[in-house]
From TrEMBL:
Keywords from the UniProt entry: ATP-binding, DNA damage, DNA recombination, DNA repair, DNA-binding, Helicase, Hydrolase, Isomerase, Nucleotide-binding
Pfam families, A to Z: DEAD, Helicase_C, RecG_dom3_C, RecG_wedge
Gene3D superfamilies for this protein: Nucleic acid-binding proteins (2.40.50.140), P-loop containing nucleotide triphosphate hydrolases (3.40.50.300)
Enzyme class: isomerase
Organism per entry: Planktosalinus lacus
Matches recorded under SUPFAM superfamilies: Nucleic acid-binding proteins, P-loop containing nucleoside triphosphate hydrolases
Role according to the record: Plays a critical role in recombination and DNA repair. Helps process Holliday junction intermediates to mature products by catalyzing branch migration. Has replication fork regression activity, unwinds stalled or blocked replication forks to make a HJ that can be resolved. Has a DNA unwinding activity characteristic of a DNA helicase with 3'-5' polarity.
Matching InterPro entries: ATP-dep_DNA_helicase_RecG (IPR004609), DEAD/DEAH_box_helicase_dom (IPR011545), Helicase_ATP-bd (IPR014001), Helicase_C-like (IPR001650), NA-bd_OB-fold (IPR012340), P-loop_NTPase (IPR027417), RecG/Mfd (IPR047112), RecG_dom3_C (IPR045562)
Protein family: Belongs to the helicase family. RecG subfamily.
Molecular function terms from GO: 3'-5' DNA helicase activity; ATP binding; DNA binding; hydrolase activity
Transferase among keywords: no
Stated name of the protein: ATP-dependent DNA helicase RecG
Length: 701
């Protein structure tokens, strides 16, 4: 089809007047023929069946009936006027009712002419009635382009009264297909269509709007979903390949004495297979000429720290420096301590830089960094300040990336002549399908195995009325020498109610667990950093047994002796947050517990969240449920990506199609990176269009 036809403004289509054109633009975003063509139905109704009035049985059924209007009257009521038509098909009589648009309807309805009516029936006042029916003269109905599966277009239901009914869209679509003669260009190459037995583009577009059968509808949907994913993946993979091709990195050719010595003599435990695999992936990246840009996903406690260290050792072995940046002071201190401990037998220098580093120490760090006497620097975003200059930074590791913006990641790049290799670590599992779409431009490594011997955190759900039993449990655990977290929701630090809940909770805990037998810490977002740190340290050192806190302790805190996590008002937390919080316990050898406290009032979704937490400890399974409950929109990082603009495919339900589309996109680009081969001409053409227009469906059919 030629481009000008599809880009014709919608005003020019027969049947679209200026008013309708305005509505189509404003309400549905249809500006051109192309927009209309790609306005896909969101469901289909089976219209093969015609009902008789004497067969009607229950309210809310969607029915289609052939009959005649025998009489129309206006009924005045307190609430307003109604227009009521008696409609009969010889087996009985029912009422058609309109609450608005009376004048137009009265003038246009034909008495005693056969109509096909469709809609949802009600049982009202001893008879069936059908408010605001869709209706069409039987003669027109028989002539129209129609199919058994009748499409229902999104958002037309609420627009019916303004003149854009589903039937209007259907008619306009018929007109569009008539004018186009259904000659839309093919957008996939022949071999893909043949191998996957896809419908050709023409047939897919026709059947999505006018399905000839259920089978063809499914095929049409599959073809268009495939295509949507295929082109998004093609874009992402291409970006990634161009990056690899263009952005040179320092090749770390050797694995030298530090890495080998550590691996042979100083590993505190045997690596899991997943850790080994991931280290190998990172080694391969570092050894190539391209800059590494890798995302390391690993569930809470899966052992990312040692992977980070071993990657840094490779940088050091090749004469480079490395750094690790974490989002909070607490976390960077923790990383520093564990890395320092792991490296104590290696001859390397490692220091910590945060907001609270003293000026004199800071000066020393700056000097050592610049003259190369410092090998590894750990810290908060103090690391990306311009003052911090490295002699030769070879690898930057960023922990918990969603707390840092893309810009901060980019700042790291500028610390050298060539950008350092970047490893981003996250403990928030992202479902594979989503990761493929959102982080398609990063390579992804996954630690999908926990270290051996790790006990699952036993998780239970308790109502507030069981609080006394929970208190007893806390006392018993403390008597065994364990420590307890009690977490309150504080989603917005400014929410006064939350703050009050936290303080009330704290006071009741203090009453229940009095001095001198019990010591309690409290940490929340409104405290000064130094006070927070002080309270945290008391808990770390075991001076306090209970830590009352808000979600500030959500990520990364590692206190192996803390074995009970109590989450108050658990129904108010999202699933991934609950999982992160639970990840704070179960880090030592003891059996750990997570108690989810709630009131009796629970929404269906909250129940699903709680049940999921009780059922499984697997972060990826939890992430899948979370994606199903919330959709991709709320999950970190998805806002800027193309996944939300999907018109027909569904990232949650169509994961299988996505995988196939991704593998085909790979195959095509591997064999033909710049899409020069003649068989890829339709793909090249479409790809060029879509990169120009930015939106996946704005390319030419
Ligand atoms: N292969 C292993 N065998 C035994 N223990 C391990 C292994 N790998 C890591 N550990 C231990 O497991 C604990 C968790 O590891 P680590 O702190 O690296 O997890 P993480 O992935 O950073 O988790 P989080 O994101 O929750 O901080 C540590 O105490 C670590 O020493």
């Amino acid at each position: 089809m030629n481009a000008t036809f599809l880009q014709t403004p919608i005003d020019y289509l027969k049947g679209v007047g200026p008013n309708r054109a305005d509505l189509l633009r404003k309400e549905i975003g249809i500006h051109t023929y192309q927009d209309l063509l790609h306005f896909f139905p969101n469901r289909y109704i089976d219209k093969t069946r015609y009902y008789k009035i004497n067969e009607l049985q229950q309210s809310n059924a969607e029915v289609q009936i052939i009959g005649k209007i025998i009489h129309i009257k206006t009924v005045e009521q307190k609430k307003g006027k109604r227009l009521v038509a008696s409609f009969t098909d010889g087996t009985g009589t029912m009422e058609l009712v309109w609450f608005r648009g009376h004048k137009w309807i009265k003038e246009n309805l034909k008495i005693n002419e056969p109509y096909v009516i469709f809609g949802k029936i009600n049982w009202y006042n001893g008879t069936f009635s059908l408010p605001h029916p869709e209706m069409e003269l039987l003669s027109e109905h028989e002539n129209g382009l129609r199919s058994a599966m009748q499409p229902v277009y999104p958002s037309t239901e609420k627009l019916t009264n303004s003149g854009i009914s589903n039937r209007t869209i259907n008619k306009l679509m018929q007109q569009l297909f008539l004018e186009s003669k259904n000659k839309f260009s093919e957008t996939l190459s022949k071999n893909i269509i043949e191998e996957l037995k896809l419908l050709p583009k023409n047939e897919a577009l026709f059947n999505i709007h006018f399905p000839k059968s259920q089978e063809l509808l499914v095929k049409a949907q599959y073809r268009l979903k495939f295509e949507e994913f295929f082109y998004i993946q093609l874009q992402l993979i291409r970006k990634n390949l161009i990056h690899k091709y263009k952005i040179k990195g320092y090749p770390f050719e050797k694995v030298g004495p530090l890495f080998n010595d550590f691996y042979k003599s100083h590993l505190p435990f045997e690596l899991t297979d997943a850790q080994k695999r991931v280290i190998k992936e990172i080694r391969n990246d570092l050894g190539s000429n391209a800059q590494m840009n890798r995302l390391l996903q690993g569930d809470v406690g899966s052992g990312k720290t040692i992977v980070a260290l071993m990657s840094m050792l490779i940088a050091l072995d090749n004469g480079f420096q490395a750094c690790l940046m974490a989002p909070t002071e607490i976390l960077s201190v923790q990383h520093y301590n564990s890395l320092f401990e792991l490296c104590k037998n290696l001859n390397i220098s490692i220091l910590l830089l945060t907001g609270s580093t003293k000026t004199s120490e800071r000066k020393e760090i700056h000097e050592k960094l610049e003259n190369g006497n410092l090998n590894i620097l750990i810290g908060t975003h103090a690391l990306i300040e311009d003052k911090v200059k490295f002699k030769n930074l070879g690898l930057a590791i960023i922990d918990e990336q969603h707390r840092f913006g893309v810009e901060q990641r980019a700042k790291m790049w500028k610390k050298n002549e060539l950008p350092p290799h970047i490893l981003v670590m996250t403990a928030t599992p992202i479902p594979r399908t989503l990761a493929m779409s959102v982080y398609g431009d990063l390579d992804i490594s996954v630690i999908d195995e926990l270290p051996p011997g790790r006990k699952e955190v036993k998780t239970v759900h308790r109502y507030d009325s069981n609080r006394l039993k929970v208190f007893k449990f806390i006392r018993d655990e403390i008597a065994k020498g364990r420590q307890i977290y009690i977490v309150y929701p504080l989603i917005q630090e400014s929410e006064k109610m939350d703050y009050k809940d936290l303080m009330d909770g704290y006071e009741s805990i203090v009453r229940e667990f009095p001095l001198p037998n019990y010591q309690i810490s409290i940490v929340h977002g409104q405290m000064k950093a130094a006070d927070k740190e002080y309270e945290m340290q008391r808990f770390v050192k075991g001076e306090t047994q209970i830590m009352v806190a808000t979600t500030v302790i959500e990520v990364g805190v590692n206190i192996p002796n803390a074995s009970v996590m109590i989450i108050e008002s658990a129904e108010r937390f999202g699933l991934s947050q609950l999982h992160q919080l639970r990840g704070r316990v179960g880090r030592g050898a003891e059996q750990s517990y997570c108690i989810l406290m709630t009131s009796f009032k629970l929404s269906k979704e909250a129940k699903t969240r709680l049940e999921t937490m009780v059922r499984t400890n697997d972060g990826f399974e939890i992430a899948e449920v979370d994606l199903k409950l919330r959709g991709p929109g709320d999950i970190m990082g998805t806002q800027q990506s193309g996944v939300l603009q999907l018109k027909i495919a569904d990232i949650v339900k169509d994961g299988d199609v996505l995988k196939i589309a991704r593998s085909y996109a790979w195959q095509v680009l591997k064999s033909d990176p710049s899409l020069q081969l003649p068989q890829h001409a339709p793909i090249k053409n479409t790809y060029t269009q879509l990169t120009r227009y930015k939106n996946i469906w704005n390319y030419i059919s």
